[in-house]
Design a protein that fits this description.
The protein is about 0% helix and about 35% strand.
């Protein structure tokens, strides 16, 4: 089941309503922010006038003045439903602004097929925490050939497996980018994703998950550009018998050409599960088949990141492709 599903053939914008119910959690409240943008009814994409869909309430908005400043609408899956599934057969673009995806059973937002997806001032909080199946991207799953993902000022908080009562449920990345032209993250926060620091799996008795997956914050098979973003306290499991495990941001396959600028990686951890060590791990991992186009890391800080991997670095591990670095700081890793 899911809370909202769109199968559409028009350009759609989802925004917040000033009358929407906001649950009490403090962490999805934002400080007031003045949004300056042209009225929606004056915007057009591909020759079509934009159409606005307000979550949970009927009606349209034509101007930022229609919205209560500083609020954010919440799609609450209550640990039972998918909060938003987008299946776009006709390739129209989708824009989502100031929406909190909260407690989805698997993916906070699942996007397949064509059409660009733009997220602005959105939160992804505690999605997939009690998933009973492989979640494959607890906050965002993106498998959209020919499309781009853009996330601006978004927060990804505690999208992690906290209880595992079925053997096919697993820990997984906050964001899983499977297919597409590329993804952009600007001024985003990734905090506490993938797995808790201390929790025991009710099935195996080992640290939760016992499923050693790569990329606690982002697992990407497409080029990504990350600017001004922070990655802190994201934790995944690594294991000597599973090469593809560990890492905060894991780049593989077609992710060559990815760029990181002015980002901070603090206190992320690759923790050994029921084995010790791993070949790969660290804040950024360049895994396999990246090709000749270099990954660029510029003006980034790597501090106090930890790994239990025996053959990898806690900062950056490059096992494939080319890497160009400049003006970076490493301390306490």
């Amino acid at each position: 089941g899911f809370s909202v599903m769109f199968c559409f053939n028009e350009y759609v914008t989802i925004k917040n309503s000033q009358n929407i119910y906001l649950p009490p959690p403090l962490e999805n409240e934002r400080p007031p922010r003045l949004l300056r943008r042209e009225p929606e009814h004056e915007r057009s994409v591909g020759g079509r006038r934009g159409r606005l869909v307000r979550p949970l309430l009927a009606g349209t908005e034509g101007d930022p003045a229609d919205r209560k400043e500083g609020t954010i609408s919440t799609l609450d899956g209550n640990g039972t439903f998918q909060t938003l599934v987008v299946v776009n057969d006709n390739g129209r673009d989708l824009e989502v602004e100031r929406v909190c995806f909260y407690r989805s059973i698997q993916n906070g937002l699942r996007k397949t097929k064509a059409g660009n997806l733009t997220l602005t001032d959105c939160d992804f909080i505690e999605n997939g925490t009690n998933a009973t199946a492989n979640t494959s991207g607890k906050a965002i799953y993106f498998d959209a050939s020919g499309a781009r993902l853009t996330a601006i000022r978004c927060r990804f908080l505690r999208n992690r497996q906290e209880v595992r009562t079925k053997s096919n449920a697993s820990i997984d990345s906050a964001v899983n980018l499977v297919n597409g032209l590329g993804a952009t993250f600007g001024d985003c926060l990734f905090f506490g994703n993938c797995t808790p620091l201390c929790q025991i799996d009710k099935i195996s008795g080992y640290p939760i998950g016992d499923k050693h997956k790569p990329g606690s914050a982002i697992l990407s098979s497409i080029p990504i550009e990350v600017t001004g973003s922070t990655f802190a306290a994201n934790i995944t499991l690594c294991r000597s018998s599973n090469e593809q495990s560990g890492g905060t941001v894991w780049l593989q396959s077609n992710a060559a050409g990815s760029v990181f600028r002015r980002c901070a990686f603090y206190g992320n951890n690759d923790r050994a599960g029921n084995g010790s060590g791993a070949t790969y791990g660290g804040a950024i991992v360049l895994y396999s088949n990246l090709g000749a186009t270099p990954v660029t890391i510029d003006s980034c800080t790597f501090a106090y990141n930890l790994t239990d991997g025996a053959k990898c670095a806690a900062g950056i591990t490059a096992g494939s492709g080319n890497l160009v670095m400049s003006n970076c700081v490493f301390g306490g890793n």
